[in-house]
Amino acid sequence: MRGRPAKAKWSAAVLAALAMTLVTTSGEAKSRKDKEAPAAEVPYPSTYKPYPGRPTALTGATVYDGRGGRIDNGTVLFADGKLVAIGGADLAIPDGYERIDARGKFVTPGVIDAHSHLGVYPSPGVSALSDGNEATAPTTPDVWAEHSVWPQDPGFTRALANGGITSLQILPGSANLMGGRSVTLKNVPSLTVQGMKFPGAPYSLKMACGENPKRVYGSKGQKPSTRMGNFAVNRQTWIDARAYMDDPDADRDLGKDTLAGVLKGDILVQNHCYRADEMALVIDMAKEMGYKVTAFHHAVESYKIADLLKANDICSAVWADWYGFKMEAYDGIPENAALIAHAGACVVIHSDDENGIQRLNQEAAKAQAAGRRIGVDIPDAQVVGWFTYNAAKAMGISGETGSLEKGKMADVVLWNGNPLSVYSRPEKVWIDGAMLFDADNPKLRPVSDFELGQPGEGDVK
Amino acid sequence: MSRRAVLAAALAAAVLPFAAQAQDLAITNATLAIGDGGAPVEHGTVVVRGGKVVAAGADVAVPAGMQAIDGTGKWVTPGLFSAVTDLGLWDVEAVDTSNDLEADDSPFNAALDVAPALNPSSQHVAISRAGGVTRATVAAFNGKSIFAGQGAVIDLAADAAMLMKPRAFQFVELGEAGARLAGGSRVAAHVALRNALREAKELAALPAGSQRQSDAMLTRPDAMALAKVLDGSEPLYVGVERAADIRSVLALKGEFPKLKLVLVGATEGWLLAPEIAAAHVPVITMPLRDLPDAFETLAATQSNVGRMTKAGVKVAIGMFTGGNQPRYAPQQAGNLVALTKLPGASGLTWGQAFAAISSIPAEISGYGGKAGVLAPGAVGDVVLWDGDPLELSSAPEEVWIDGVKQSLDNHQTRLRERYKDLDRTYLPKAYDW
């Protein structure tokens, strides 16, 4: 059937909202006096352990380190799940390393998507698996995306094989002003979501401004039905969260736990927001309420306020050239990313899409080219950072991954050509030093439970 | 002289000082893609006269007295042809008042005709033109019926003469979407289809002015529209994905021999590619679908186009609706070229991939040899690119339609000029235009 990829995300929100009866959050379920969870008790902890790998030397490649560096005829060494050294042709290769001749090929850090709904809006996109928007109240900071992720979503495997995705942030949808907590995953096949959770990654709170929340709730005759309503609900919710933090006797409240985490700086904020004027208001709301926005997502108008975003150290997570599918996307332009980067602000190329996540490198290349045509020339090595290091930074994991630096996780993609060319694909992908995809080995192509016994099981996809 | 050349000449002779003129046009020394499936030609020349292609190739001479553009380092191609789009039917997709894609509350279905709603001033048209798209077919979405109505063929020139051919095809949804529209099952969709065609047949056979049977379910205009499908004068585009559903569609030819079928979607087409080829039914598809996003697309793979093409199916890249913008066609074609380097995958050669976004969709749309190809007598739609058109870094520098040089300006280019620098010291940005 003919689809509307761009429309699907928000229409899913509407359908979910209309299909569900409104649940009142009266707080009847208060069960616990002590709201401070004991420090040792990290619920739903990651059980991910790196898979076995061999000490590996990639030689002769063009290496982009993800932080703006480029080495021609470079060598990349990793062992025991960690990057050991990155250097030129003269870098000594210790004994016991498997050498892979990467002449004519390219090496980048593993690709990272800061905005994905894999697992929460999985394939097949049937309503029984549609778990991305708890569209029953305008603020649901109490829900956690990890409780919706279906690890068998075949989309994870496509993202790995075609997109070189090694880490990704799964966000709740944008029906709500406060949609809930994100979860950051290593893109490893797993029976459980705990087996994918990125060890130690901070949580984020997904927020949304603009059309979606006011439409979803306004259409039910409920607050918010306007942008001013959006802000009013947000501000009151923050004020209530602050009071909760200050009240040692308050009953435990899951939603306010999340908001308190934001106010304490432990939980990041990923804010879906399209329009420049609205982003400026959100920045002021964050100052008023005492938190920080880490990244604006879908920020199609960031180019209008790139200076403001730089001054406030906020990343813009953007598509290359989506526009026009909704009113607040009407001013999207292909030069957005390049103009943001030109102003010195942080650019992240994100997908918000199970197909787009397979081609973040291509989207970055298109955005770079659009800039070049108006005289804004962002070097290839910096552009690679748009889908590696900068994404890691926006997710709070740039200390562990996102770049090729000694001691970091060996999340590495070997491309069969320049990753900024349409003619290139990942050839091999390592996550924590374990080779989890190899285009030359059909058995190193993960197949989800869902696809077993179906037409096309194990096919190239 | 083409229709547009005549129009342009008429306008130029009148009062409009800026009216576009059909130029006699020659570009030399470019890398030339004819669009016919062949490999690009180095040091190629294209000549356009009176709005039509006169010649294109390596050994083409520029006629005496014609000024030639030096295409050194650049690429020249026919204008892209986008099959099954929503061009000219919306300004903002989610703003219902600007969107004429679907009519949920209309009593009509097959009779719906997009032609009078087409808006050549839509930004979506201008932005697609700047991406090198010069011709397209436009299809509405379904309202409450399996029949979406009749689509049109358009050009994307920056003028009022957008419509090339109204009522160029009928669109019917079968498969999962058709099942929902028909009342809940594929069974119901097939009965609805057959009943509609039967009523169309009966109406067509009635003497003018006579009454139809009282149990007719279709409105008279809907039945009249379908009569043209029955006699093959309008192709029937069928939205269908699953292998089994495609087989059921191909079987329709046994019952209704004159149907001119076109499969739209066919995500599982590779599973029965020889059957589709033997039926001589062409396919318009989204080539990069590789997820089982529905139970009707379990076998989705990016190798679908390559495998069907190899089996002899005529396959066009298309279905540019919503977020899937027509200007993405070259990227999608380029991805199919990339597959040729991937072990186990089936892709297309560069020439085949380019044909899948130019001459093949034109052929399927009834414009074989006339559009999407730089062949003598074809429309003078020429795009001058700053590099390999399938590569991510490339874009059109100039676009001609019917030999008329086109403006590539639009809302996006105006915004980018305004915000290229952020200096707001002396006056607000609103004064910068």
Cα(first) to Cα(last) distance of chain B is 37 Å
CATH topology of chain A: TIM Barrel
How many alpha or pi helices of chain B? 12
CATH classification class of the largest domain in chain B: Alpha Beta
* Share of helix of chain B, binned: 25-40%
Q: At the third CATH level, what is the topology name of the largest domain in chain B? A: TIM Barrel
Mean pLDDT across residues of chain A: 93
Percent of residues in beta strands of chain A: 15-25%
Q: What is the string of SSEs of chain B from the N terminus onward?
A: HEEEEEEHEEEHHHEHEHEHEHHHEEEH
Main sheet makeup of chain A = 8 strands, mixed
The helix tally of chain A amounts to: 11
Report the mean per-residue pLDDT of chain B as an integer: 95
Net shape of chain A:
globular
The greatest interface between two protein chains, and residues involved on each side, is: A-B, 71 and 69 residues
| CATH class (first level) name of chain A | Alpha Beta
Sheet/helix structural class of chain B: alpha/beta
Describe the model.
The complex is a heterodimer of chains A (461) and B (433). Chain A is an alpha/beta fold and 461 residues long. Chain A has a single domain, classed as TIM Barrel (Alpha-Beta Barrel), CATH 3.20.20.140. Chain A contains eleven helices and 17 strands. Chain A has helices at 5-19, 154-163, 211-218, 227-246, 254-263, 276-289, 306-311, 336-342, 360-372, 380-386, 389-395, and strands at 56-64, 70-79, 82-87, 98-101, 106-109, 111-116, 165-170, 178-181, 183-186, 204-208, 268-272, 295-297, 315-318, 347-349, 412-415, 426-431, 434-438. In chain A, strands 1, 2, 3, 4, 5, 15, 16 and 17 form an eight-stranded mixed sheet that branches. In chain A, strands 8-10-11-12-13-14 form a six-stranded mixed sheet, sandwiched between helices. In chain A, a hairpin with a 2-residue loop joins β16 and β17. Chain B folds into two domains: 1-78 and 372-433, Urease, subunit C, domain 1, CATH 2.30.40.10; 80-368, Metal-dependent hydrolases (TIM Barrel). Chain B has helices at residues 3-13, 123-130, 175-182, 186-205, 220-230, 243-255, 273-278, 304-310, 329-338, 350-355, 359-364, 411-419; strands at residues 25-32, 41-49, 52-57, 68-70, 75-78, 80-85, 133-138, 147-155, 163-173, 236-240, 261-265, 283-285, 315-320, 382-385, 396-401, 404-405. Chains A and B meet through α1, α2 and α9 of A and α2, α3, α9 and α12 of B.
